[in-house]
Amino acid sequence: MSTNSEKPTPLLAARGLAKSHGRTRALRGASVELRAGEILAVTGASGSGKSTLLHCLAGIVRPDEGSVVYGDTRLDGLPEKRLSELRRTDFGVVFQFGQLIPELTALDNVALPLLLAGASRRDAHVRAGQWLERFGVLGQEELRPGEMSGGQAQRVSLARALVTGPKVVFADEPTGALDSLAGEQVMSALVHTARESGTAVLLITHDAQVAAYADREVQLRDGAVVPLGVAA
Ligand SMILES: Nc1ncnc2c1ncn2[C@@H]1O[C@H](COP(=O)(O)OP(=O)(O)OP(=O)(O)O)[C@@H](O)[C@H]1O
Ligand SMILES: [Mg+2]
């Protein structure tokens, strides 16, 4: 039980993560906490390990060392079947390079997580349409990813990540392909949605204006979080 004088228990906590891709040490002892409902920005130079950290926290990549704890569940040792179930119910992910399904239209891409969760086709399409509207891409429902601009694909990816009402959204450079006005629109929609539903957001960004939407910012350098006071 936490009291007022204690820090709230984190919703998601990574401790001492190490991860190598071949001979590249992408993470070297990274630790980070995300509290319920918190919007946390992760910044750092290209190659500092941000995407790798996000993939470990979201249970997509298993760290070589360290632990990832979500609520009272340790993700890094969880069997794949339970991990993918938990990812489907509790997490929404916006990948840095889109990863929409190329054969499906925008509407079907966003509806897919709902269909997997057992919604009817009709209900899934209605809700998917509402999310596309929220992110300003209504009218493009029938486009396939190959026919969309980078910015449209990012908005569709955000809609897909949020459509199931996850507890945590992981967004890797969600405004990277948008101009600053469109970036602001997407960020306000994301922040508004997160605040309204109490969703925690881990947001990777290079952009200080985007990071300013977060409650807190941590910076990665060479695969580890820069201690407070050393950043800048
Ligand atoms: N699948 C992979 N295979 C080999 N090396 C990889 C792989 N993924 C990442 N790396 C390497 O690990 C390091 C960290 O990569 P990561 O993608 O986590 O960085 P990042 O901070 O997200 O960078 P960016 O800002 O450019 O997206 C880099 O040196 C990268 O080249
Ligand atoms: Mg990256």
Can you walk me through this structure?
This protein has a 6-stranded mixed sheet, with helices on both faces. A 4-stranded antiparallel sheet has the order 2-1-4-5, with helices on one face. The protein is globular, with a radius of gyration of 17 Å. The chain has one domain: P-loop containing nucleotide triphosphate hydrolases (Rossmann fold), CATH 3.40.50.300. Helix 3 crosses helix 4 and helix 5 runs parallel beside helix 6. The protein has helices at 50-57, 80-90, 106-116, 121-134, 150-162, 180-197, 208-211, and strands spanning 12-21, 24-34, 39-44, 65-70, 73-74, 91-94, 168-172, 200-204, 216-221, 224-225. The protein is of the alpha/beta class. Residues 50-51, 96, 172 line the site of magnesium ion.
* CATH hierarchy: architecture: 3-Layer(aba) Sandwich
| Global structural class | alpha/beta
Helix content: 25-40%
Average pLDDT, to the nearest integer?
Answer: 91
Tally of distinct domains:
1
Order of helices and strands: EEEHEEHEHHHEHEHEE
CATH superfamily membership: P-loop containing nucleotide triphosphate hydrolases
How far the N terminus sits from the C terminus, by CA atoms, comes to 35 Å
Radius of gyration: 17 Å
What strand order characterises the main sheet?
6-7-8-3-9-10
Largest sheet: 6 strands, mixed
Which strand-content bin applies to the residues? 15-25%
Q: What's the number of extended β-strand segments?
A: 10
Question: What is the CATH class designation?
Answer: Alpha Beta
**Hetero groups bound?**
adenosine-5'-triphosphate, magnesium ion
Q: Report the principal-axis shape.
A: globular
Number of helices: 7
Protein name: ABC transporter ATP-binding protein
InterPro entries: AAA+_ATPase, ABC_transporter-like_ATP-bd, ABC_transporter-like_CS, ABC_transpr_LolD-like, MacB-like_ATP-bd, P-loop_NTPase
GO molecular function: ATP binding; ATP hydrolysis activity; transmembrane transporter activity
GO cellular component, one term: plasma membrane
